[in-house]
Amino acid sequence: NSTAQARRTVQQLRLEASIERIKVSKASADLMSYCEEHARSDPLLMGIPTSENPF
């Protein structure tokens, strides 16, 4: 039904419009900080010791 589809679209657009926006520069700085803080526990960056690798 096109009315139901339109309602879902409007609901989704309202949800997206209510999301708090931040500048890309702040978002990227926050992401870099998070990555730097958690780099030690990231197996893709640090690798997995052979003794703990199940493969």
UniProtKB/TrEMBL annotation:
Pfam families: G-gamma. Coiled coil: none annotated. It is a lipid-anchor. It comes from the Eukaryota. GO terms for molecular function: G-protein beta-subunit binding. Keywords: Cell membrane, Lipoprotein, Membrane, Methylation, Prenylation, Transducer. GO terms for biological process: G protein-coupled receptor signaling pathway. It is found in: Cell membrane. Signal peptide: none annotated. Belongs to the G protein gamma family. GO terms for cellular component: heterotrimeric G-protein complex. It comes from Rattus norvegicus. G proteins are composed of 3 units; alpha, beta and gamma. This is Guanine nucleotide-binding protein subunit gamma. Guanine nucleotide-binding proteins (G proteins) are involved as a modulator or transducer in various transmembrane signaling systems. The beta and gamma chains are required for the GTPase activity, for replacement of GDP by GTP, and for G protein-effector interaction. Residues 1-55 form the G protein gamma domain. Its main location: membrane.
